[in-house]
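Q: Start with the shorter request: fold the first protein.
A: Done. Sequence, then structure:
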Amino acid sequence: MKVFLLEDDDAIGMGLKYSLEKEGYEAEHFKSKAEALNSWKSGEYDLCILDINLPDGNGYDVCKFIKEKEDVPVIFLTASDAEVNVVMGLEMGADDYICKPFRVGELIARIKTVLRRSGKFKDSSASSDNIIRIENMTINTAEAKVYISDKASGKEKNVELTALEYRLLLDFVNNRGIVMSRNKLLEDMWDVSGEFVNDNTLTVYIKRLRDKIEKDPADPMIIKTVRGMGYMIEK
């Protein structure tokens, strides 16, 4: 996987390049709009990480230039989470954004999520494109089926999930390593169901899902609670 990294701050850029390469990515670091535009090669990169504020312009212009050439996933780095900045970036075709300062672990998790959504990332927990394994749970996305294995017997049992329970599970799986706030989960549930899902209903769905997939729902190992923030499945 090759990453196009645009960051004018030397310290941040070098640190990100080191962290990306430590994770197994190949990264090329550019420091200005001009350098980025002059160095871009179509078909060369799997992902772009673009700083918004640059000494000779901004990352929006670079994103627009790249998206006109090919559809490569883009993550923006921004010093502000102001709604206008976020909306502008998404309208430019960005796939995600992250605000400075940020933890490298969060950025790596977001990179994997964006690559997974774009079809470029093959998860190490999957033996094929359609099989995902987490703890003692196996998800066959081609058949929309979920199985839980019993280590004592060595057998798997099919877990019967409702459509919304399955969609909720996939939302967590597709965002592994990222804390999902209740508001974000509610937005996603609304998008996939076309029905109104309120906060109390979400609580019920999470409880039902845990009852079906967790060995001990009172001490969940798959869908974990991050107190004061939301829920997550660890990567």
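Q: Next, the second protein, separately.
A: Sequence, then structure:
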Amino acid sequence: MIEDILDEASDKMKSTLAVFRDELSRMRSGRASVALVDRMMVDYYGQGTELRQIANISTPEAMLILIRPYDKAAVQNIEKAIQKSDIGVNPNVDGENIRLNMPALTRERRQELVKFLNRRMEDTRVAIRNIRRSANSDLKDFEKEKLISEDDCKRGEDEVQKLTDKYIAQVGELGAEKERDIMEV
């Protein structure tokens, strides 16, 4: 029973961390990244489709993203989707390919990104703590129902705390790494 609660809490914390990692990959840093646009939704023949499904996306240079649509008819829709997005880059279209020249980040913009990063880190930590609270609540319920002893409940809570500490530390490490990436000039 305790193992089930620990496994469930661990799975939830892993998925929370995976979502955070995914958000970080989409966050703009000092250089071009395919992750900024690969999941962007594009109207493709009346259907919302991820850009990565209708185009080849690459970064031939540090500050350039090159998008080569498989279907030349999609170029205009891709251009519109990029213009509507919040990445702050105007696409250069040469008929077949779309180039995104990533401007250098200003000091102010870097600081805004770090503030946003810190907010996302705290939100992720809160989510992990909520998972801990839920697991501890389940342990207490089992103890009240006499399914586990008081000692087992305490041991379970200690294990849940260890899991929580581990995942919160990983959030901190990922955040610090992304902050270094953002502040790198």
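Q: Describe the second briefly.
A: The beta strands are 41-44, 47-50, 55-61, 64-69, 92-93, 98-101. The two ends are 51 Å apart (CA to CA).
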